[in-house]
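Researcher: Here's a chain I'd like modeled. Treat it as a single chain, no partners, no ligands.
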Amino acid sequence: MTKSGSAYIECSGLFKIYKAADLEVVALRGLELTVQQGEILAIVGASGSGKSTLLNILAGYDAPSAGTIRVGDFDLLQMTNKEVVKYRRHEVGFIWQETSRNLFPYLTTLENVELPMVIAGSPKTERKKRAQELLDIVGLGDRSSHKPAELSGGEQQRVAIAVGLSNKPPLLLADEPTGELDDQTGKEVLELLNKVNQDLGTTILIVTHDPAIATSVQRAIAIKDGKTSTETTREVSYERKLNGETTNTEEFLLIDTAGSVQIPRDVLNELNIERKVKVDIKDGKVTLESGD
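Model: Modeled as a single isolated chain. Structure tokens:
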């Protein structure tokens, strides 16, 4: 649930610091992000940029060090252990990149989808019906008695999506969901995620290196050095998403609440700007000039 007029996910000044002996690693450096309910969003960035750290915090697997982060009615910085359990059971579903991490090998597909509902205490008849409905949605209704080893990688990832949706979470997080799949199978998984977003209204965040995903959603956020850096928006129709066809693509630099903005290094190099810059405003336009 989200309060009327507010975003579903709000991150402001978000920090995550890891400590090992006398060493501190700052994974998130005042990150800011706003996501509306029902959006499907790609989070992109180089290895070590902080995107997986953000996903783990949103999943409730890790705790932020400072800042503000809210998902629906949950304050992820202030949650008690009991609230974390409730959050992970009912608010969020998670899909790992490694298909083997999403499913128990000794359970059938139906039993795997049922398991989160078993943990949540759902009645047996209700959970079996829900599990079969989800397998039908992901196109594997006739494979309910199969075990993961009897499924292809793409089929396992489809079951993983069903598992993630088991307890009807309003938020689904996916960590490189096509990373171990071939192009065609990855395209099918992407199509399914889009279908889930459209048909069920589930808010979906996808961490990815896959350009097919980043260019097939209406909004993609790039993270650089632990902060959101750029936002690319696309006017994309559902039918054209999978073909990579887009219209009115725009890319923006993001400004945080402190007024900071990350200017791409190639732009700075073009202007011969190193450590200092002069800013001038004229006729409604901002110009940058080297101050070195």
